[in-house]
């Protein structure tokens, strides 16, 4: 059973590493700040979650597993808020999304005080 747990946790950590690598490629290649924020968000949501789940499975004690789960929950709570705040601040400072034709968010913002 220990061999299966080690294999499962290693698989999850390698899969998380793949997500992190793909997001780094996205951060370099994407054209504007909004798509780059999206890539960074996926790195934390996908990559870090899988790595933390792998660490929780492999943890030698239940305290280590609980800490990993709490860190994962913290990431899940703060990551969307931070990425939304960054995107909204960029929009309010006039940074236009790359290649957009219709700005529905701008129309909605005009109605607000």
From TrEMBL:
Residue intervals passing through the bilayer: 12-31, 43-59, 65-82
Database matches in Pfam families: PhaG_MnhG_YufB (PF03334)
MF terms in GO: sodium:proton antiporter activity
Record's keyword terms, sorted: Membrane, Transmembrane, Transmembrane helix
PANTHER family listed in its UniProt record: ANTIPORTER SUBUNIT MNHG2-RELATED
Protein name (record): Monovalent cation/proton antiporter, MnhG/PhaG subunit
Originating species: Dethiosulfovibrio peptidovorans DSM 11002
